[in-house]
Amino acid sequence: MTLGVTDYRLMKNCDLNGTHQYSDRLRSEDIISLLSPRPLWKLMRGIVRAPFDSNFAGAPLAVCWFTNFSCNAKCHFCCKAAEVRTGKNRFPPLNIDKAKHLMTAIRKTVDLLYLSGGEPTIHPHIGEILEEAHMLKFRSVGMSTNLIALDKKPEVLDFIDAISISIHSPDVNAHAANLGVPPEVAHRVFENIEILKNHPRRRNIKVIVNCVINRKNLDKILDMVEFVKNLGFLLELVPANDNGRTPEDLAGNPEYISLINGILEMRKSGEAPHLAGSTAYYKRIRDFKPFRCFPMGVPNVLPDGRLYTPCDISGQHAVNVLDYSNLKEAIHAAKPHFGNYPCKAGHCFKAGIIERSRLFGLLTR
């Protein structure tokens, strides 16, 4: 059976006027409210200190832990494609005891934990990991997923506060082409949206649809805006990058520029209040201008616990957090490997770190 755009346009909690029982919103206070006063003070003090102290290693706000690099999709634009290809051998997941040790070290330094991959829902211990995060009382736990296996691991929804779901077109066949999977697998994604929408904790879970703009879905993005609005979720539009660098097929592309300009107009008119990201963010991804990066603001951790920068093209894998009592000590030990903070080279482009770098940058002005 061939499924098209309209097959999932109106979902169960929507009426024919496009209204819905529950809609997500993203406000600055949503982010600030996740931080307790002490970590927030340390964060602000740290980023103000950065420009004046060359030995400063960073003031972390959260941690992104790539729990595993195994994946059940083959997205052609995946920024972790190299790691996914070698995931089972080069980056085996930690056993549950070491995973708990790692989260304990992270929790001593930050309030916020975000789990990514690969595909976290196929990690053999993902349920236990999320339950442990709950026991450690992180103020917020988020997770990214392509939703393919959610029906097999619905218990993950019992322990998370935010979820980023990867959908790159409302059309099943187009989404399948983006995921690199058969249409019947992509169909499962849309079926699993219902599990998420109807979960008893839905009101406690902020849902963000992550859509990567690339050459295969450029003509589907406006459909995505409407589709996600009707779902009542937030929409995060992120341009694909070329191994961490500016995407050649999007930069200067008149169709892409026109699309982002149209998105900016929709935001200005109030037509698309569900679009996550600031106006400055959309201008940045339209023009692909370099920006200051605060890599240790949200440090990345490999499946085995190694700390590294979010700049994929740097190849900077340094110390292992498991060798230290807390994340702060690991970051300080990694400073000689990572160089000055913040990075002002502007030689890479990853849209996912633009907004958080803007937050850190604004606080240093």
Considering the chains and any ligands shown, give keywords for the structure.
365 residues; 9-stranded mixed sheet; TIM Barrel; alpha/beta; 13 helices; disordered N terminus
Question: Topology of this protein?
Answer:
Elements: H1 28-32, H2 37-49, E1 62-66, H3 81-85, H4 87-90, H5 96-107, E2 112-116, H6 126-135, E3 140-145, E4 162-166, H7 172-179, H8 183-197, E5 206-213, H9 221-231, E6 234-239, H10 254-269, H11 279-287, E7 300-301, E8 306-308, E9 317-320, H12 327-338, H13 354-364
Helix pairs in contact: 2-13, 5-6, 7-8, 10-11
Provide a descriptive summary of the structure in words.
The chain has helices spanning 28-32, 37-49, 81-85, 87-90, 96-107, 126-135, 172-179, 183-197, 221-231, 254-269, 279-287, 327-338, 354-364; strands at 62-66, 112-116, 140-145, 162-166, 206-213, 234-239, 300-301, 306-308, 317-320. By secondary structure, the protein is of the alpha/beta class. Strands 6-5-4-3-2-1-7-8-9 form a 9-stranded mixed β-sheet, covered by helices on one side. It is built from 13 helices and 9 strands. Strand 2 (112-116), helix 6 (126-135) and strand 3 (140-145) form a beta-alpha-beta unit.
